[in-house]
């Protein structure tokens, strides 16, 4: 039976029940609830009662959201060998979800935004989730626009006054958990208000639902995708653009831009100016700082000969991604020729990157088009400004040590 049939059947049943019952009016006197309201929402005798009370006050009451931190075997993905989340790290992750996720969207979307659209269940898993058949790692998943499962919580660093969070720790938190969180939440939003069909028309011929994991970063970026996984389907591509805009570091964005520019995709001088506009919008720091990797890299010409067929392909690989490219060289014979060394991103973009008017959409041009479509949709449908959300998240992350020190209490088991 289809979902549509189920809904119709439910409505018919409800209609039959209502027809058989006396009608209600505004003049009816309602008596006390038929349910036992003396039962408290939190079991005071539970060993986890203090934390459960905190969750009730901060998630259930304001957002009707449940944090499932105790291992829920039936709700887990049985394709993976998974482990429960440590109690202390469940508490810290819950605080971070409130501070870096719910409070951000509530600030800019209004008091009712997350009440209406926020996930209703967060499910924590302690371990990673590997798929041995494909060699891929699942970082999280959502169910029916209601539940978000967060993976690998146990790898999160436990904050102490003597061992506070560094930018590297925050980067890992973004990569492992918060990128996934914004990715899955963006699915909820676009399933509520669909994204424009024009987004999927930017790179319609290069989505690879089955083989996306075989692409390395250079190929994915060169084809116009911000991540490898984004090249699996247009709806994954859409939410990856949103999530990367919010959570990706300056390093990730600049290396993505260089990859995408190095192998075609700039159609006009205006596109080069749009790259600088994007960098300014992302508020990337140190564009001209000599020590930054994007101002100090070597571009290599990679020649790949496929062993079985003898087919030869060529592309340009920046030194910071050369190791990644070699890891994906199964069945190929690779040679690298130094093309040019750069000590300035501006020199690379302004003088080396070629304009190719024959390319309909690809590389950096495609990424620029996709970002423009996604940011416009974000504002027109939700009243949110994507770069503003990025700025708020980054500012909060920069203050995360103060937040934990002043606001977080880790409850021991009773």
Write the layout of secondary structure elements.
Elements: H1 3-20, H2 49-63, E1 66-68, H3 87-109, H4 113-117, E2 121-124, E3 129-131, E4 136-138, E5 140-143, E6 147-150, H5 167-192, H6 197-200, H7 217-223, H8 234-247, H9 250-262, H10 269-281, E7 297-306, E8 312-318, H11 322-327, E9 332-342, H12 345-352, H13 363-382, H14 386-398, H15 400-407
Parallel strand pairs: 1-2, 2-6
Antiparallel strand pairs: 3-4, 5-6, 7-8, 7-9
Helix pairs in contact: 3-14, 5-8, 7-9, 8-14, 9-13
What does this protein look like?
- The protein is of the alpha/beta class and 414 residues long.
- The protein is 47% helix and 12% strand.
- The protein has 15 helices and nine strands.
- The strands form three sheets. Strands 1-2-6-5 form a four-stranded mixed sheet.
- Helix 3 packs across helix 14 and helix 5 packs across helix 8.
- The longest helix is centred in the middle third of the chain and has 26 residues.
- The radius of gyration is 25 Å and the shape is globular.
- The two termini are 48 Å apart.
- The N terminus is likely disordered.
Summed up:
The protein is built from 15 helices and 9 strands. It is of the alpha/beta class. The model is unreliable at 1-26 (pLDDT under 50).
Which terms would index this structure?
single chain, 414 residues, alpha/beta, four-stranded mixed sheet, globular
């Amino acid at each position: 039976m289809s979902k549509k049939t189920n809904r119709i059947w439910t409505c018919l049943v409800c209609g039959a029940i209502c027809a058989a019952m006396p009608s209600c009016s505004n003049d009816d006197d309602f008596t006390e609830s038929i349910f036992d309201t003396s039962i408290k929402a939190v079991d005071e005798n539970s060993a986890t009662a203090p934390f459960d009370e905190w969750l009730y006050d901060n998630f259930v009451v304001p957002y009707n959201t449940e944090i499932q931190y105790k291992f829920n075997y039936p709700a887990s993905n049985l394709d993976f060998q998974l482990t429960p989340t440590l109690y202390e790290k469940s508490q810290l992750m819950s605080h971070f979800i409130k501070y870096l996720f719910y409070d951000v969207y509530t600030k800019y979307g209004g008091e009712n935004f997350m009440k209406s659209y926020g996930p209703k269940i967060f499910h924590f898993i302690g371990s990673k989730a590997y798929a041995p058949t494909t060699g891929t790692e699942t970082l999280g998943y959502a169910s029916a626009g209601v539940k978000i499962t967060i993976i690998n919580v146990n790898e999160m660093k436990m904050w102490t006054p003597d061992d506070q969070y560094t930018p590297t720790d925050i980067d890992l938190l973004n990569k492992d958990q918060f990128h996934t969180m914004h990715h899955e939440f963006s699915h909820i939003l676009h399933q509520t208000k669909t994204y424009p069909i024009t987004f999927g028309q930017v790179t319609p011929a290069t989505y690879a639902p089955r083989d996306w994991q075989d692409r390395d970063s250079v190929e994915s970026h060169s084809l116009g995708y911000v991540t490898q996984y984004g090249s699996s389907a247009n709806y994954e591509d859409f939410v990856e653009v949103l999530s990367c805009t919010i959570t990706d570091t300056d390093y990730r964005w600049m290396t993505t831009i260089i990859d995408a520019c190095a192998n075609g995709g700039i159609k006009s001088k205006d596109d080069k100016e749009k790259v600088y506009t994007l960098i300014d919008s992302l508020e990337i720091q140190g564009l001209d700082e000599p020590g930054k990797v994007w101002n100090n890299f070597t571009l290599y010409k990679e020649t790949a000969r496929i062993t079985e067929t003898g087919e030869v392909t060529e592309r340009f690989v920046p030194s910071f991604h050369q190791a990644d490219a070699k890891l994906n060289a199964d069945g190929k014979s690779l040679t690298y020729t130094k093309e040019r060394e750069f000590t300035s991103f501006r020199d690379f973009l302004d003088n080396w990157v070629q304009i190719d008017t024959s390319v309909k959409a690809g590389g950096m041009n495609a990424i620029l088009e996709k970002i423009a479509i996604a940011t416009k949709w974000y504002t027109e449908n939700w009243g949110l400004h994507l770069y503003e959300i990025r700025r708020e998240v980054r500012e909060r992350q920069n203050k995360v040590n103060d937040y934990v020190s002043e606001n977080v209490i880790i409850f021991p088991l009773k």
